[in-house]
Every structure is written in structure tokens, then in C-alpha cells.
Design goal:
The structure is a homodimer.
Chain A lengths: L4 E6 L7 H17 L1 E6 L1 H6 L5 H18 L6 E5 L4 H11 L4 H6 L1 H9 L8 H4 L1 H11 L4 E3 L5 H17 L9 E3 L29 H9 L20 H9 L3 H13 L4 H27 L2 H29 L7
Parallel strand pairs in A: 1-2, 2-3, 4-5
């Protein structure tokens, strides 16, 4: 096994969907065989823009954990933990805040984009602005070295590495190692409406917890080709969500190629095509859904897993902080 | 004894001086008889603008504690604690950051003034900007209700009360009570050079730890009246530091009145006058110095006091945080 430590995770603001599945969950199931892997349920970060809805955040901690277990994240191989239960992250965040200027933070392209997207305007909460700093603390508290991210999140890793360099330099220590981003080669899954991103807020997501009926309805409502009105008409493949999904999820590539040819020639109706995609997706989601329902019957068992993972993380975090306190000469009673 | 809880403290960036003595230390010796009193040695806050000099901060934790004990702060009556050892303050700071907007923080008059004074310009560390939020956490983590401050610090209390109101309102709780500022009626002590404020950075301070010799030299170099060149000349009282100090420190008010009259008439030399002030100050500082030297012989005893105070504070802080987590629905394992 490698010496690298992977840190990854999700904000518990909703159940996870197929976009998460292909974008990160499948990779985590692989990573846990190769690396030490910490998976963070980022409730504190979720509160930065959901501070007035703590019940939503709390409820989704369990939902996200259920999704993890259902897709095959194995608590014996991955350490799953709850962010708010690791006070050392907050401590490190406070120390890191001294090493970053306000101007640097405002220049972070990821944050800049998100501030506009979320429409904070003049009332930007300090907690939201500061979240790249707390992300650096999330990663370094477990001595993370590898962080799987999308291209758009690279500035966050850059920011974290700047903080690490400052810290090591100012406090004459080597307690933290440079972080490397892993940009997994995964397709970005569009929503069922064809919009670039599948997301809860856009209401265009297929959840790992969707019932068979819901899945069918969502597939049947998928955007295909607005010009493809009659079965015999030739249809377009580009921008056709059904084919995007088949490309991602159907392992029978020959079959997909045949369907594409048929669709473009004309004579393949949307309903037939969608029924086929439904079968493909149902084959993937059905065992996940089943496993999820099993775990959902015993939430206290799931919470016990989170408790154990949190305990393990607390030990790692305290180990890191003891080095941090030594470097910062705050180890008064050692 | 009152139900009020006093929170007060100092940044450990240097030993304490006569300005602290009349401005806050004497009051604390009184307050500890009337209130539950927590005294914070604010090393985390000191690091916000001394992050690159942690040794200075560390060393002064002991120096400040020695000053406390020397002036009569009694660890059996007051709880003295070290900020960095209370992780709950950082946790609460992170939660509070969601309740304050960046614009609100930038409008804080105290912070605005200090940013200019410290010349941060474009490179303002986030930690410094955020310190009114962490001060709110300092106060509320011990459920403080009374905070002795100077007039210039009132905006900090206002900011803290805004945070408390938001917190109680958003999380439908009454965990925090409104904070009241106590503005003690104390003279603001000018520096020995006559500048408005006695401060370490201005190099115009008389320390509680000054030797008898140092004290004499400082008194002898005091600014009096630049027009008072010969003994027989009439001298001015206004702006004359020696008289300012006599007004504050000499309990023999009749004697001070006589000296003033004599000085204004002419015939009272600066040297005679300063020698008298030296005696007055030496009578005050000498027992403090002696007590300080006693404690300084056994730093481990002093550190033990800080350890105990910190332990007591940790219990209070954990109690507060357990209410906070309940209100924020982050009590996953209760």
C-alpha cells in the first residue's frame, strides 16, 4: 500500500446522485484499496451557506453515509468522519487565517465564481469567504497528500499549498507535505434536462436512492432531440442526454454504437431508447438501492460507523495538532 | 456573590505596565471578590499580528501571569487560562463566522482604526480582520456577561451582541445572554514622554517588573514643562506628566495640591519633584516587584496555576459547546 493519504468528502446538503457516483464515489471504492483514505462529511462547510437550516444538514449526514455504504465504501478500508466533531480543524483554521491576506482570498477564482452563483452580493458571510482556508485545514489535519478534485477546484489546492508553504516556512517545520490534486478522468454527467451539471438545486438529478418508479419517470422525461418528433425521423446524438448516459453507463459499447446509428438514420423512437437506458441504469442502481435500504433499516449501526471513523480521525488530528503546537511554541505543558 | 460572569484578559505581547495597573488590573482584584471572573491570556489573538514571532508570544504568557499574581489576582478567586488551549473558542469562532458579513466586519470602527495603525495596507491577514468574531467567542464560551473595556472597544461589544442575537434567533435558543460593557472610571495614563497612551511599542512605559533603578531613570526622564528651565521659574501643571502621575498615584491629595501651587509659583525644581514621585511609585511597585520575583523563582508553580485555570475553563467551554451543538443540531451522538 502507498504512503499517500487521500482526503475527500461531500457536503451533506442532499442525497448523492449519479453525478457523484461516476465523478467521485466509484473512484473512492478504488482508492480505498490503494491508499489510506479519509472521507469527510463536511457539515461545518455545509453550514457556511446553510447556517439557517441546520436540520437539513443534520438529516443529510445520515443520507450521505447511507450512499457511501451502499456504493461499496468499506468502513474497514476508508475512514468516514463528521467534520464538526473534529475541533482540531477549527483550531488549525484559526491559525491558518493569519497566513492568508484578505486580498488573496478574494482573488481565489473558485470562491469568486461561487460568490456570484450564490448571489451573496453585499452580504457575504465571512464563513463562506474563509472556506478555502478551512478546506486547507480539512486536508492537512489528516496529513492528506492526495485530493481528488474537479478542474474547477484546482485553485483551492493551490491555496492550500500556499498555506502549507507559509506555515512550514514561518514556523520552521516540515510538519505538512505538499498536496497533489488528482483530477480523475471521469465524464461530467449532465442533468436529465441536458443542463451541463447534475445538481440537487437544479432539480435535474437521478439519486442513488431513487425508487425504480422515480428512475423510470426521470429517464422518460429526459431531454433527447427537440426536432425528433416522429419515430421515422432521423435524430441527433449531440446533446442527447439519453446517449450521453448510455456512453457513460452502458458497458455494451457495440450495442450503443448500433443504437446511435439507428437513431441517426431514423426509425428508433425515444420511448424504446429510454426504456433501454432505464434497464441499464436500473441494473446499476438496483443493487445500490437494495444495499442502501438494508443499511437504512438500522441507522444506529450507520451512526456507529461514523462514530468509529470520527474517533480514528480525532487521534490523527490530535497527532497533527501536537506537531503544530510544538512548531508554534504553544506546547506549554509538554 | 453576583450571577454575572466577567471575562477580561490581555494579549501576551509584553510585560504589563502602570497603564494596565490603573486601567484594568486593580479592577480585576476588586471584581474577583464580587463576580465569577475569567482572565484570558490571549495568545491566539496575539498571534494574529505576531504570527511570525511565536517565541515572543510564548515567553510573555509567563510574564503576564507573573504580573497577574504579583498585583494580587488570586487564582482561587479568578480563573486564569490560556486561549490556545481552549479549542472550543476556535469551534465557536468558525460557527460565528457564518453569522457576520464581510462588510459588517470591515465597518467595525475599532478594527478600521487598528488596521490603519498597524499599517497592514493591502496585506491584511484574515485572522486580524476576523478577531472581533473570535473575541465574541472568547466572551461567550465562558458565558461571560460583563466585559470591562475602554470606550474605544465598545464596537467590539456591540459586534459580539449582534452575533449573540443572530445565534439565539437563528438556532431558536437562549444559550447566550446579552453582554454588558463595564467602562471603569479610570484615568488613562499617558506615557512618560507625555504621549497620550502608555504602550510598549511607543517605548514610554513603566513596567510592574521594572527595577528600582529603571523606575528612577524613567521618572527622572519624564516630560514636565519645556519652559521650566530654572528652579525659580513658574512651571505649568497641564500636560506635566509628573503631576498627571501624582494625581493618579499619590493618595496624599493635600500634598499634591501644595506641590502644584508651589510649582506654579516657582521655586520647586523638577529634580525635587521627580524624586518625590519616584518615592510614591516605588511604594506601589516595590511590593509588586517583590511578589513577582518570588513567583518568578518557581515558573513551574505559575504554569501549574495556568494549567488548573485552563482545565476549569475547558469544563465550562465544553458545557457551552454542548448547548451550542444541541441548538445547531450537531449533537449526533447524544
Amino acid at each position: 500500500m502507498s504512503n499517500e493519504v487521500v482526503l475527500t468528502g461531500d457536503r451533506p446538503t442532499g442525497p448523492l446522485h449519479l453525478g457523484h457516483y461516476v465523478g467521485s464515489l466509484l473512484n473512492r471504492v478504488k482508492f480505498q484499496e490503494e491508499y489510506k483514505q479519509y472521507i469527510l462529511i463536511a457539515d461545518v462547510q455545509a453550514l457556511t451557506d446553510n447556517y439557517d437550516n441546520p436540520q437539513k444538514v443534520r438529516d443529510n449526514v445520515l443520507q450521505v453515509a447511507l450512499d457511501y455504504l451502499a456504493v461499496g465504501i468499506d468502513p474497514n478500508k476508508s475512514t468516514i468522519f463528521i467534520q464538526s466533531l473534529i475541533p482540531q480543524i477549527a483550531e488549525l483554521t484559526v491559525f491558518y487565517m493569519n497566513l492568508v491576506t484578505l486580498n488573496r482570498l478574494k482573488r481565489n477564482p473558485t470562491v469568486k465564481t461561487e460568490i456570484i452563483q450564490k448571489g451573496f452580493g453585499e452580504s457575504l458571510p465571512v464563513g463562506f469567504l474563509v472556506y478555502p482556508i478551512s478546506q486547507a485545514a480539512d486536508i492537512t489535519i489528516v496529513q492528506g497528500t492526495l485530493v481528488p478534485v474537479g478542474e474547477d477546484q484546482l485553485p483551492m489546492i493551490e491555496q492550500a499549498n500556499e498555506i502549507i508553504r507559509s506555515f512550514n516556512n514561518i514556523y520552521k517545520t516540515e510538519v505538512f507535505s505538499n498536496i497533489r490534486a488528482i483530477i480523475p478522468e471521469v465524464p461530467r454527467l449532465s442533468g436529465i434536462d441536458g443542463k451541463a451539471k447534475m445538481s440537487k438545486s437544479l432539480g435535474n438529478a437521478i439519486y442513488l436512492s431513487d425508487s425504480s418508479d422515480d428512475l423510470r419517470k426521470k429517464v422518460m422525461s429526459m431531454y433527447t432531440d427537440s426536432g425528433h418528433l416522429r419515430v421515422e425521423d432521423p435524430g441527433k446524438i449531440e446533446g442527447n442526454v439519453v446517449f450521453t448516459y448510455l456512453d457513460v453507463f452502458d458497458i455494451d459499447k457495440v450495442k450503443v454504437a448500433q443504437l446511435k446509428e439507428h437513431y441517426q438514420k431514423g426509425g428508433l423512437g425515444d420511448v424504446v431508447l429510454k426504456k433501454y437506458l432505464f434497464e441499464v441504469l436500473e441494473n446499476i442502481i438496483s443493487p445500490i438501492r437494495q444495499k442502501r435500504q438494508e443499511f437504512a433499516k438500522d441507522p444506529s449501526y450507520v451512526m456507529e460507523i461514523l462514530k468509529k471513523g470520527t474517533q480514528t480521525t480525532l487521534e490523527t488530528a490530535e497527532n497533527t495538532m501536537s506537531k503544530v503546537r510544538q512548531a508554534m511554541k504553544l506546547n506549554y505543558f509538554d
